[in-house]
What we know:
With 469 residues, this protein is α/β, with parallel strands linked by helices. The protein contains 16 helices and 19 strands. It has two domains: 208 residues, YjeF N-terminal domain (Rossmann fold, 3-Layer(aba) Sandwich), CATH 3.40.50.10260; 236 residues, UDP-N-acetylmuramoyl-L-alanine:D-glutamate ligase (3-Layer(aba) Sandwich), CATH 3.40.1190.20.
Amino acid sequence: MPRNREHVLGQVLTVAQMRHAEDELINAGISVDALMQKAGQGAGEWVRRIAAGRAVTVLCGPGNNGGDGWVIAEYLRSRATPVKVIAAREPATDAARTAHALNHGDVIAADPATTGDVLVDCLFGSGLTRALPDDLCALLSGLAAQHPHRIAIDLPSGIESDSGLVLNEGLPHWTHTIALGAWKHAHLTMPACHTMGTMRLFDIGVAAQSGAAHKLAKPVIAPPAADAHKYLRGLLGIVGGAMPGATLLAATAAQRAGAGYVKLVANPAPVHTDPALVVTTDIDALLSDKRMAALLIGPGLGRSDASSRLLTQALHAAKPTVVDADALVLLRGAILNGVPCVLTPHEGEMAALERTFALAGKGLRRDRALVLAKAANAVVVLKGPDTLIAAPDGTVILSPRASPWLSVAGTGDVLAGTIASRLAVHADPLRAAQEGLWLHGEAARLCGAAFTPGELAHAIRFALIECLP
Length: 469
C-alpha cells in the first residue's frame, strides 16, 4: 500500500460521505459500471482466497450491493471456483442489471435450505435504514445456517451503516467482512461490529473526505534522544486519594509508557509500592514544580469534599491533565479554565459530565462525545467496547474492537496512566489519547485471556516496543 494512501484508507465515512466520494470518482471519468467491476473483482479475489476451492453461494439483492455480487460470482467462475448465485430480488439499478447480464454462471432458486461451504452476502449494502422484509431475513438466516464460512460484502445485510444498529433480531454473525472503498461507522461501532468477524478493506481509489472520522492507527513513538534525561522525557505527577490500588495501577502503566519520571502524591502514602516510584505527601511541592510536564487525577481519588479540593488544586496548576474516574464526577466546568485536558469517561461518567455541562446527552455516542469535547474544550476518550476519541476541533477517532478481556476492574486505571504518560512526553492531548488507547488495546492482545490489570500495566512496555521506528 503506498504510504500516501494510508491516511485516506484510515478514514471512516458516513453513507453521505461515501456517496460523495463515489460521485467524485464518477465525475473524474470512471463509469458506475467500471467502478462496480473494480469493487466486485477486488472483493472477489478476497472471496476466492478465503474459499480456497470450496463451493461458494452468492446471495444477490436488487441494488448495487447485489450488482457487486454478480461481479464476484463471475470473477469466481472465471477462476475455477465452484459458485452459484441466488437472486433474492431482480436487479433494480442499471449497474446491477449490467453486472447481471455479464454473469454466465449458475443461478438457483431462493431456497433457505441451500447448502454450501461459503456464503457471500450481497443482499443489501450500506444504504439500508429499514429492517429486512421477513422473507429476506428468513432466507439470509437460513442460508447462513447452512454455510460454515460466511462473508459479508461491504456490510452485513440488516445493519444500519451510520449508527451500527442491528435492524433485525437474530441476524447471523459473519466470519469475514470485506469493506469496499472505505470503512463505515458500523465497522467500528457496537452492536454491529461484534457480528462482522475478521474485517478487510478493498481500496477502490476514493479521495480523502472533509469531516471524516478516522480509524485508530498504530502510532510511531520515537525513542528518547541521545542526550535525554528524566525531566526531558517528561515528569508526570499523579494525585492519589482514598483508594491507593487504582492509583498504583495507573502509576505502574505510566512508568512503562514512556515518561521519564513518575511521581505520586498520596496522603497517607501507600504501604507497598514499586521502589522505582517516587511517593510524596506534599501536593504543594508537586504542583509548584516547574519541571512538571503533566498531571493525572482521578484513579482512586474518592468523591469526598477533600477529593474535590484536590481536583480544584490540581487543575489550578494549569498543567496538561488527564481527568479520570472519580474526578470526572467531581468535575465542574468552570474549574477547567482552559487547562489542556483529556477526559476519560465510561458511559456512567459520561452521563455525569453531560449533566455538569448542561448537555442533552442524546444521539450517537460519537456525536455526544463531540458535543462534550467542544463544551469542555477538552479531548474526550469515551470508553466502552467501541471506545472512541473526540476533540474540540471536530476530530473523531474510532478504535477497532479491543479484547473483551478488558472488561475487568482496574483496566481503566491502566488506560488513564498510559495516556497521562504520553501526555507528559509531548503535552499534546489528542496525540496522547490516540497513543495511549492503542497501547492499551495492544497490551490486552499481548496478555491473552483472563489477565489482571497489573499484568496489563506491565504489558504496556511490550506494546510500546512495537511502536518504535
